[in-house]
Amino acid sequence: MADVIGPENEADLQAQIEEVEALSSIYGDEWCVIDEASRIFCIKISNDLEEPELTARLQIILPSDYPSRAPPIYQINAAWLRGPERAKLANSLEDLYVEHAGDSILYLWVEKIREFLLERCQSSETAAQPEMVNMTTEEEDHDEDAPDFRTLGLDAELAQLLMDPSHDEEVPPIKHGDAITDRRSTFQPHLAPVVTPRQVKMVLEKLMENKKIASATHNIYAYRILCEDRGGFLQDCEDDGETAAGGRLLHLLQILDVRNVMVVVSRWYGGVLLGPDRFKHINNCARNILVEEGYAASSDEATKPGAKTKRPKGKKTK
């Protein structure tokens, strides 16, 4: 059920708007809006050191009664953050919230995480660690004992929606579309139905088991998950080195109004620069497989009077 904004929430909503505007101004491209309607945001945080560099992603959901009565729901994504270190950082964020209860807290949280990264890099333990690879929100290897979203006991309904493991027992079925080749570069789409962030991670891991896909120059992806109880979407994307490609792919999913699906486009670079044509091929690949699997109408169907975007087909038994 979506939040109802009453008079008692108007001050909180205004405080959230002002805080988000300030954070966007302060952190620039590091600040990302995942779903504005559902108040879901993400920020990439680094330790400001060139060597060694550690990064983390803080994903945040702002409840309707934040900051007056509830803390943000948050998730810290970092492949290197496990066990005691994760618990220590989470406790420090919660202590900050208690200390500043009722106030906007996100800037303090971001800087606390940055301070934590800096301290870790300067510690003697860092020298013994292997080189860290920056991971996306979906690719993070979670500590099994750590919850995905921490809520301080508040807004548990939404947290349960995001953490619900009931759909995660099996990897969703993955479809592979037809490839497009241009000047020795090849683009191939892959599609899977997903209803939780955990399933997104599972699909990526399954794809990476394929040596050919794992060897692709770029594996660009985007997903949209409908949160019916919230009346909004959980969505994100990843360029994987192909700058701006993930955002364009997510924009396509939004235009087609598809839901509960992720699309991955693998590109094998052939040695010839394609310029803007590469984005055309990525989106054409994605559109083709969405049409083939019934998530979107074909171009001909879409131009017919009264045409509507298709919804996912039911699972086929093979």
Short descriptors:
Ribosomal Protein S5, domain 2; 2 domains; 4-stranded antiparallel sheet; globular; 36% helix; UPF0029_Impact_CS; disordered C terminus; 318 residues; repressor; translation regulation; 6-stranded antiparallel sheet; cytoplasm; alpha+beta; Ubiquitin Conjugating Enzyme
Shape category: globular
Major β-sheet profile: 6 strands, antiparallel
N- and C-termini, Cα separation: 36 Å
**What structural category arises from helix and sheet content?**
alpha+beta
CATH superfamily of the largest domain: Ubiquitin Conjugating Enzyme
The average pLDDT is: 76
Structural description of this entry:
- With 318 residues, the chain is of the alpha+beta class.
- The protein has 2 domains: 7-163, Ubiquitin Conjugating Enzyme (Roll); 175-302, Ribosomal Protein S5, domain 2 (2-Layer Sandwich).
- 36% of the residues lie in helices and 20% in strands.
- The protein is built from 10 helices and 10 strands.
- Strands 5, 6, 7, 8, 9 and 10 form a 6-stranded antiparallel beta sheet that branches. Strands 1-2-3-4 form a 4-stranded antiparallel beta sheet.
- Strand 8 (218-227) and strand 9 form a beta hairpin.
- It is globular and about 55 Å long.
- The two termini are 36 Å apart.
- Residues 1-5, 124-168 and 302-318 have low confidence and may be disordered.
- Belongs to the IMPACT family.
- This is Protein IMPACT.
- Residues 297-318 are annotated as: Disordered.
- It is found in: Cytoplasm.
